[in-house]
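Usage

Read records sequentially. Each one opens with the input sequence:
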Amino acid sequence: MSAKRIISLFLLSSFLCCLAGCKKNETDANTEPENEISYDLSAAVFPNPERGFIRTVPVYSEGAPLSMSFLNLVKGQNITLVLRLFYLEKFKSQPISAAELTLIQTDLTNLRAAGLKVILRFAYTDDVAGTDASYATIEQHLDQLKPLFESNKDIIAFVQAGFVGAYGEWHSSSNGLATIENQRKVLIRLLSVLPAEIMVQVRTPGMKQQIFNTNLPVGRDLAYTAENRSRVGHHNDCFLTGGTEYGTYNNIVAEKQYISDEALYVPVGGETCPPTGGYNPDCAESQKEMKLLKWTYLNLDYFPATINAWRSSGCFDEFQKSLGYRLALVSSQIPEQVSKSTDLKIIISVSNKGYAPLYYKKSTYLVFKNKASGQLYQQLLNIDLRECKPNGTVVIDESIKTSDIPAGDYELFLKIADRSVSLSARVEYSVRLANLDTWVTDNGGMNALNRTLKMVN
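and closes with the structure output:
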C-alpha cells in the first residue's frame, strides 16, 4: 500500500469519527474535576489528642494525686498530654502498696475526667547513683501494674521504658541493669504486660538497635503489627543540645536518619537540656531537627532557657501547631444529589502539615445531618489516617451505601474519633482539622465539609 493511500485512509477515518461524535477525553488535564471545592488552611493554635507540648509531673511513692484544678489549667494551655513519672522508691524490695496502686488509678481517672491522655514512666530513684530495684522486683511490679494498663489503655498515649537506673533513663543502675541483656529483659517484659496497641519508647536509638539486633528501621511491612519492634519508639531527654546530645547518639548522622525513617511509624518525643559546645537551638535549628526526627511531643517544663527563647523569638506558636500531626482538608468531590438506591461516591483529600503522623488508628466517619430535624447518621469509612505522613496527602475515595438514610436535605461532616467506645463521643479525643470555618463540637467534635446533599428516593 502506498504512503498516499495510508494517509487518505487515516484522514477519512478521522473525519468519520468526528461525524459520529468523537469528543475530547473528559480526564484531560484541562478539565476541572466535577463539583470539587477546596478548603482554606487555618493558622490557629488548638489542641489535638496524643501530640504537642506536654507537662511533666513526677510524684514520689504514695504522694498526692494530680488535681483537677491543675489538669484543667493544663487543658486551657492547648495541652492534651501529661507525662506522669511515678517514683517507686519505697518499693525497691517489696510489692507496690495498695495505696500506691490507688494513687496511680486516681491519676488516670482524673486525667480521663479532664479529657487528657498520659505518657507513663516508672522509676525507683532520682539519684545519680541509680539505686534501683532488681529485675525480679521489676517483674513483680509489672505484674501488679498489668490490670491498670489494661483498664486504662484508652487514655495511655505512650509508655517510656523506665524502671532502670536514675530517673528510669536506663543508665547508672545499682543492680547492673544498664546492660543490653538486662534492658532487653525489661523491655520485652514491659511489652508483654501492656495491651498490644500501646507503644513504648526507649532512651536511645542504639539501645533499640542492640536489643533487636538490627539497625534497620521499622518499615511499612512491619508497622502497626503486634511484633515487638514495631511497638518501640524513642524518647530523647536531652534534645537540641548539640553533638551526641549527652550520649543519645553514637553515630550521630546514621542514628538520626534511623529515627527519621522509623518515626513514620513509631513515636518520638522527650525534652530539651542545656546546650553544649556553643550549640544554639534557635528557631531555625530547632525546626530543622523537629522535622527531621518527626517529633510528636515535647516537655514544656525543661529546659526553660530553650523554651523561653522560642517564645521571645516568635516560633513557639509554630512548634505548638506543628509538633505531631496537623491534618487539614484539601478538597472534596461529592455530588449535590443522590438516590437512596445508588451508592454515594466521595473523594476527599486530606494533607498533613505537622512534623509527624498519627500513631494510633482513628475511626473516621462521614456524618449526615438532616437540615430539618437535626438527626445524625454516620457511616464508618475505610481510610486509615495514619497513612497521612508529614508533607503528604491521602485521598478518601469511597462509595457509601445510603439506603438506610431517609430522603431529605443534609449537611455533611467528617468525624475523626478515638476508636475506644469510652472516648469516641468525647470532643476532647476527636481530631480537629486545620481549616477555616469547619470545626464544630456537635456529636463529639466534627469537621464540616461545607457541603449539602439532597437524598431522594
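Summary fields computed downstream for this record:
- The CA atoms of residues 370 and 410 lie 4 Å apart.
- The radius of gyration is 27 Å.
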